[in-house]
DNA sequence: CCGGAAGTTGCAAAGGATTACATTTGTTGC
DNA sequence: GCAACAAATGTAATCCTTTGCAACTTCCGG
């Protein structure tokens, strides 16, 4: 069931059928109609392998992500896919599972499929994988790399802006004892967030004392652990900003198990603004990071690369604070607001 | 940079290089080594389009799912991908977004890519899509279809067993006023769950009274709404089983907003056992549905189809109850257990 | 040292679409 | 009604691998 069968049925050449398939303008409307009828009647399905072999385009883009199970990524994938779909492009993704080896492997697999673009949304890279990319001229876009890599565009998040909003919000509520729950130091994205928090504190003039940073794992379990550590202190902080929502949820749980009430005893702020924030009790105040915006910038960056258009090499995304019920004036609801 | 370049560099023919690439046994070890060296030195990446065009195999399998954002699916995808990866097979998926049109479209796209197998994990099918599948001999496996389709294997979940466990658990705790929160009647999976609940009640001899079924939307918002409805009743049920976890989380939220305590005032059971169950307060008792098992059965069903092996046409998965903190003896913790 | 089997390798024909270029058909102005 | 040009269509080469078959080696027993 190939294009030849269709051509015969429609009484044209394969070239014409191909033109109809590719919506080429140089086909008479009547002819195109005949071809389309033949396609429908024969239930013809074009062979994508042949198409991309010949044309050099695969109409497929690849996403490299850390872990589909982190709700951040499905959101991103969904938006990316929907956008790509509007342009007739399919999407496939590879889970790196935070492993450099799986990253290299993923890059290889995507290149073998001849994808028309790769968005790298994970922060565990590998020299080998990057070199592989460089050897091709496949468009690539990175997310949140601490430094520009191989002259590829890099979409970054202005973490400092985000944390400054958070710290300001807490100060308004009268908090001065503000701590930070960081992610694993091996993750470059976690490290960047930690540094940004410190910078934000400095910018707000809150760095008189020793910076107050706990270390977590970006998972719920880690948050739970830190909650215990936190509340067994003689003089715990009155507010905690977490490097991501998962850990904030863990803190919430840990607090509840210890009988500590949130936000009365501790104001809590997460990062990412996953749907989880609204599912949890009390609903979590969080820094919203728009997946739609990331997806859209990534997609257009890749499209630009495809069409030899100039690539924007810097693109900054601003998080914004979404206030819910996990933050309150210091000292419980009886506390007063600070001007 | 094609196979010919490698062949020349290694001083062999393209056929030999191809054999090395495909791990064919009929190549002398020394030759294979020379070829591998050449491949590495040239940074050669085989062209998958050409490979699958010629061989008829794509080493790609497709997943059709409803919505990546429902945490049920990422789990499934992850397991499926990991399993497929061990067999050198890549995975791509299509979101149907619960739309029949997107389903048809998804099927078409997967067929165009020449996938070696399609797992249909969604329940909005379309005649058109199914017909497209039938026209090919691509292996297909379904999940939870109410009836066998086109002689394709169908993996089903024994919902009745699951709900019987749930009802038994509640009876042990002394509950007799047990209600059910159903999903949208348009979703066949929701309908099947509702029917199974009623069957389970019958099996437990709990069907003396009128069945007590609320209607939801399988989302958090729907659960929240039903909570309001529920607690404004004169004599509300003492236990509620939900068709999925998302709605149970919504009920939890709604209850909390109304100041109703769970499990004291209402025992709550969800379905699926998403990670959400542990993130939420109180942790949700839920019926665990193993994504790993589903993924594994689906994958092997497709593999079987690939190798012209006999296909198992029925495969049943048993959910099991995971008891957490959202269920308690009737009448609050002071209630007595019924023997 | 030969015949034949078994093991390696090469030759060349697919596989199904796209596309540059050639050719045919249609249109327009006069 | 015809030249000249534009539009539509066809021809055939090409994309890169895989693989059936043929050809060549190697190895062994006799």
Summary?
Chain A has 339 residues and is an alpha/beta fold. Helix content of chain A is 44%, strand content 15%. The first copy, chain A, folds into three domains: 3-46, lambda repressor-like DNA-binding domains (434 Repressor (Amino-terminal Domain), Orthogonal Bundle), CATH 1.10.260; 58-157 and 291-318, Response regulator (Rossmann fold, 3-Layer(aba) Sandwich); 159-289, Response regulator (Rossmann fold, 3-Layer(aba) Sandwich).
What does this structure look like?
- Two copies of one chain form a homodimer.
- By secondary structure, the first copy, chain A, is an alpha/beta fold.
- Chain A is built from 13 helices and twelve strands.
- Chains A and B meet through helix 4, helix 5, strand 2, helix 6 and helix 11 of A and helix 4, helix 5, strand 2, helix 6 and helix 11 of B.
- Chain A binds a DNA duplex (30 and 30 nucleotides) through residues 2-4, 12-19, 21-22, 26-28, 31, 46-56.
Task: Count the DSSP helices of chain A.
Answer: 13
Per the CATH scheme, the topology name of the largest domain in chain A is Rossmann fold
Calculate the mean pLDDT score of chain A and round it. Answer: 91
Q: Give the overall silhouette of chain A.
A: elongated
Q: Which oligomerization state do the chains in this entry correspond to?
A: homodimer
Rg result of chain A = 25 Å
């Amino acid at each position: 069931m190939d294009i030849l069968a269709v051509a015969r049925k429609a009484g044209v050449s394969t070239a014409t059928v191909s033109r109809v398939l590719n919506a080429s303008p140089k086909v008479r409307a009547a002819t195109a109609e005949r071809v389309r009828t033949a396609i429908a009647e024969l239930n013809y399905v074009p062979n994508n392998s042949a198409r991309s072999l010949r044309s050099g385009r695969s109409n497929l883009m690849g996403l490299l992500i850390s872990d589909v199970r982190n709700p951040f990524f499905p959101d991103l994938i969904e938006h990316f896919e929907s956008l790509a779909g509007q342009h007739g492009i399919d999407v496939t993704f590879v889970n790196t599972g935070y492993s450099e080896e799986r990253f290299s492997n993923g890059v290889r697999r995507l290149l073998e499929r001849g994808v028309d673009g790769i968005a790298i949304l994970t922060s565990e890279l590998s020299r080998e994988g990057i070199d592989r990319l460089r050897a091709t001229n496949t468009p690539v876009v990175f997310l949140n790399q601490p430094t520009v890599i191989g002259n590829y565009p890099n979409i970054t998040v202005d973490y400092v802006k985000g944390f400054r909003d958070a710290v300001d919000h807490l100060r308004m509520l009268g908090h001065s004892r503000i701590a930070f729950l960081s992610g694993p130091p091996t993750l470059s994205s976690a490290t960047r967030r930690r540094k940004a928090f410190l910078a934000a504190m400095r910018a707000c003039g809150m760095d008189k004392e020793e910076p107050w940073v706990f270390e977590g794992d970006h998972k719920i379990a880690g948050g739970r652990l830190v909650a215990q550590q936190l509340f067994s202190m003689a003089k715990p902080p009155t507010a905690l900003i977490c490097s991501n929502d998962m850990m904030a949820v863990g803190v919430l749980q840990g607090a509840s198990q210890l009988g500590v009430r949130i936000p009365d005893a501790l104001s809590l702020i997460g990062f990412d603004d996953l749907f989880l924030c609204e599912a949890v009790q009390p609903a979590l105040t969080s820094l919203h990071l728009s997946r739609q915006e990331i997806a859209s910038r990534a997609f257009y960056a890749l499209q630009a690369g495809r069409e030899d258009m100039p690539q924007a090499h810097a693109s900054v995304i601003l998080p914004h604070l979404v206030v819910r019920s996990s933050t309150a004036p210091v000292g419980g609801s009886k506390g007063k607001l600070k001007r």
